[in-house]
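Open question from group meeting: does this chain pack into something compact, or does most of it stay loose? Before anyone orders reagents, we agreed to write out a predicted structure and look at it together. Recording both the input and the output here so the notebook holds the full record.
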Amino acid sequence: MMAEFNIDCKGMQCPGPIVEVFKKINSMESGDVLHIEVSDHGFHSDIQAWCGKTGNELVKLEDNGDMIAASIRKA
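Structure tokens returned:
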């Protein structure tokens, strides 16, 4: 059974959000999905690179100007 998790990293600066994603993903099961909201615009490129390196799937990446929302499925 797939689980979904949410973390709020608004107000954190790099590398804080990526560190939080890494910590949470490590406690999740394969197939689980992590939803994250971030205000640091560096996260947009950071999360794409991180998913590419780690093999986790970037399901969604949206930038509405004030906030970036991403969903990552654990490999």
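Observations to bring back to the group:
The longest strand covers residues 57-63.
The mean pLDDT is 96.
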